[in-house]
Design a protein that fits this description.
Blueprint (H helix, E strand, L loop, with lengths): L10 E4 L9 H16 L9 H8 L4 H11 L18 H19 L7 H10 L3 E5 L5 H8 L7 E3 L1 H6 L9 H10 L6 E5 L2 H9 L4 E5 L5 H6 L4 E3 L7
Helix pairs in contact: 1-4, 2-3, 3-4
Catalytic activity: beta-D-glucose 1-phosphate = beta-D-glucose 6-phosphate
Protein name: Beta-phosphoglucomutase
Organism: Saccharothrix saharensis
Length: 238
């Protein structure tokens, strides 16, 4: 098969931000501004790239808030999903990040990576199922803006994860839900991830093939966390 995948694979499950679209960098910017605004009045060091990769990348939004703040020894009340973005709660901080991200997307738009559409088209031509599994609650907007929605047969996003009470990455729950929607056994599905937590999720779910997509210079870490192969762009698999 001209897709760089084992012959037993009949479906592909793609993370969105950092795999199909360049929105991962927009997420980084929104997280950095959110946390820096939170940390500065408390005399805390600023949010670093290493913080993003270790505690936030690939995780559901509120999980990322909890994980990062715990790394700084900070505990906030949970609050509720309806908290305003200036509330000092886990949900308030997460909602501020989401508001910032939506503003950035409105102003700058969304660009798919060069290899994304050619690879999705090749997967479609081979008759494999295509699903998107992402912690982002903005996935539909991003897919529409990037012109990728017509390829997607199943979507598990932050809205579905919250609605169905799924554990976020690095737990495999969201990828397993994607496989169920496509009607495929995990052993016959490939996972495509740029986040360490996502690669861990693919390995933990018993998926047949895990592709690490290295957009942040972490090839060895992706392999160590369970990737079978690492590429810098999906086009390398064609």
């Amino acid at each position: 098969m001209a897709l760089g995948l084992p012959d037993a694979i009949t479906a592909c499950l793609f993370d969105l931000d950092g795999v199909l679209t360049s929105t991962a960098v927009l997420h980084r910017r929104a997280w950095r501004r959110t946390f820096d605004d939170f940390l500065r009045p408390r005399g805390e060091p600023p949010f670093a790239e290493s913080d993003y990769l270790r505690f936030v990348d690939g995780r559901p939004r509120y999980d990322g808030v909890r994980e990062f703040l715990a790394s700084r020894g900070i505990t906030l009340p949970e609050g509720t999903p309806d908290d305003p973005p200036d509330a000092d709660t886990v949900h308030g901080v997460g909602n501020r990040k989401n508001d910032l991200l939506e503003a950035i997307i409105r102003h700058e738009g969304v660009t798919p990576y060069a290899g994304t559409a050619p690879y999705l088209r090749a997967v479609e031509d081979e008759g494999l199922g295509i699903g998107v599994v992402t912690s982002s609650a903005n996935a539909r907007k991003v897919l529409d803006a990037a012109g990728l929605s017509p390829f997607v047969q199943a979507l598990v996003d932050g809205v579905v994860i919250s609605r169905d009470g799924l554990k976020g990455k690095p737990a495999p729950d969201s990828f397993l839900a994607g496989a169920r929607l496509l009607g495929v056994n995990p052993a016959h599905a490939a996972v495509f991830e740029d986040a360490l937590s996502g690669v861990q999720a693919g390995r933990a779910g018993g998926f047949g093939h895990v592709v690490g997509v290295d957009r942040a210079g972490q090839r060895e870490a992706l392999l160590a966390h369970g990737a079978d192969v690492v590429v810098e762009d999906l086009s390398e698999l064609l």
